[in-house]
């Protein structure tokens, strides 16, 4: 059982690491962006409200996100913990998550900040392709699929997200700096923040994250004995 938040700019590896944690630790990878894109694809009320913000690279309003996440976090699989990717993204969202946890007598185990320099972020985002069907993420330079532009997991043709085209990427990075970066200070004060160099390779980053979260889980179990 562990509850982890992955923080970092778009392209820092949150999705890759959260999905690796899902396989390694058996906790669900919950990505607010994937949930929103599924709503857009299915043309739900939430999808129709969120799409204009997403297309511009801006944040969807907190009330819509909080409602969506409250629903997702109350599903049965999330009771054994989770790796959150893309949520919280504002201080208001972090406060709401904190209140929810407090109400349930729960706590986050760790907030992992994946630190990646800006130039590397731009390079990564331009080479990123995603599977529109199972949400697997590829990096054409460093993590390409086995068959050109085809998902290894499910065989669907990969796509570049509309919001990863150069004009929107700049806005997403600006929004990250203005609205999400303050969370670093927020979680540092809470004593939950762990900073990891996000450029040391996927396996090394995973090893570093696993070391942190498994250490936390072990010390919590000891306290309960
Ligand atoms: P992502 O896949 O995490 O990069 O998210 C894609 C887009 O979905 C973002 O650019 C936002 O428009 C929206 N989004 C995802 N998560 C959130 C969130 N926690 N709060 C507000 N907007 C979000």
Task: Describe the protein's architecture and organization.
By secondary structure, the chain is α/β, with parallel strands linked by helices. It has 2 domains: 2-116 and 167-224, P-loop containing nucleotide triphosphate hydrolases (Rossmann fold, 3-Layer(aba) Sandwich); 118-160, no CATH class. Helices cover 51% and strands 14% of the residues. It has helices at residues 14-25, 32-41, 45-56, 62-73, 91-103, 118-127, 166-180, 182-189, 202-224, and strands at 2-7, 29-31, 81-85, 110-115, 128-130, 137-139, 193-197. It has a 5-stranded parallel β-sheet, sandwiched between helices. A two-stranded antiparallel ribbon has the order 5-6. A hairpin with a 6-residue loop joins strand 5 and strand 6. The longest helix is centred in the last third of the chain and has 23 residues, at 202-224. The structure holds adenosine monophosphate. Adenosine monophosphate (AMP) binds next to helix 2 and helix 3.
Strand percentage, roughly?
A: 5-15%
Give the name of the CATH architecture of the largest domain: 3-Layer(aba) Sandwich
Helical segment tally?
A: 9
Mean pLDDT: 94
- CATH first level of the largest domain: which class? Alpha Beta
Compressed to H and E, one letter per element, the order equals EHEHHHEHEHEEHHEH
| CATH fold group of the largest domain | Rossmann fold
Distance between the termini: 16 Å
- Beta strand count: 7
Bound molecules: adenosine monophosphate
Main sheet summary = 5 strands, parallel
Helix content: 40-55%
Report Rg: 17 Å
Q: What oligomeric state do these chains adopt?
A: single chain
Write out the CATH superfamily name of the largest domain: P-loop containing nucleotide triphosphate hydrolases
Overall spatial form: globular
Poorly predicted regions are none
**Helical/strand content category:** alpha/beta
Spatial strand sequence of the major β-sheet: 2-3-1-4-7
Number of domains: 2
């Amino acid at each position: 059982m562990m509850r982890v938040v992955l923080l970092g700019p778009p392209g820092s590896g949150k999705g890759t690491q959260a999905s690796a944690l899902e396989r390694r630790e058996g906790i669900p990878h919950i990505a607010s962006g994937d949930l929103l894109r599924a709503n857009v694809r299915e043309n739900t009320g939430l999808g129709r409200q969120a799409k204009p913000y997403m297309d511009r690279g801006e944040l969807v309003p907190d009330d819509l996100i909080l409602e969506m996440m409250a629903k997702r976090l109350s599903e049965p699989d999330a009771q054994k913990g989770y790796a959150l990717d893309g949520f919280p993204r504002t201080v208001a969202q972090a406060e709401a998550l904190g209140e929810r946890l407090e109400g349930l007598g729960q706590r986050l185990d760790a907030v992992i900040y994946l630190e990646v320099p800006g130039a590397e972020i731009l390079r990564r985002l331009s080479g990123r392709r995603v599977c529109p069907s199972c949400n697997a993420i590829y990096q054409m330079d460093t993590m390409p699929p086995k068959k050109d532009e085809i998902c290894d997991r499910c065989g669907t043709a990969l796509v570049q997200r509309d919001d990863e085209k150069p004009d929107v990427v700049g806005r997403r990075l600006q929004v990250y700096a203005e609205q999400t970066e303050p969370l670093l200070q927020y979680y540092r004060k809470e004593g939950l923040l762990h900073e990891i160099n996000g450029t040391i390779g996927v396996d090394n980053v995973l090893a570093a994250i696993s070391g942190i979260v498994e250490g936390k889980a072990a010390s919590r179990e000891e306290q309960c004995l």
